[in-house]
Request: fold
Amino acid sequence: MQYNRGFLLKLFVIFYFLKIVSSKVEFTNINCTSWDPEFSDFEYCYLKSVNRSYKYMSLKVNLYKVPINVIKVNIAALKRFNGYKPFLYNATVDACRFLKNPKSNPVFSYLHNMFRSFSNMNHTCPYNHDLVVEKLNTNFLNNHITSALPVPEGDYALQTSWFANNILRATVLVSITLS
Reply:
């Protein structure tokens, strides 16, 4: 049986895009650091593996000096090349202003949508309660990351640094593998 080149090219393209869409996100580590324990501290910060295909992340930070009216977040995407190196994005946003108008920054809007439905960090300032991200699972991230962005396979980390009143208060580093 003979196939023409057009058919083989179409078949190659289909398999190529199926490979991108079928990428798998897997949590490998989480590290939460409170830089000012009198201001805030992590009650818990962990990854939980329910079975081979279902993992989730949970964290809770207790805020001791509320209300908080000025919040800035620095987000850095890192890729592992002999250690973690900057990859694609490293920027700081005024979280209070962003939450008033999420369309003002499409990149942060995309990142916020990754955890918004699993968190209580979905309203504007002031924050006068503890902050929680509860059971953010890899199945949700698989759909969110791999369906929108053709990210190459590899080891990645997302580092967030949280500033309140222009003072670094906490850092959260989440490591993932894309396969």
Observations:
- The longest strand covers residues 167-178.
- The first helix runs from residue 5 to 21.
- The chain has one domain: 23-178.
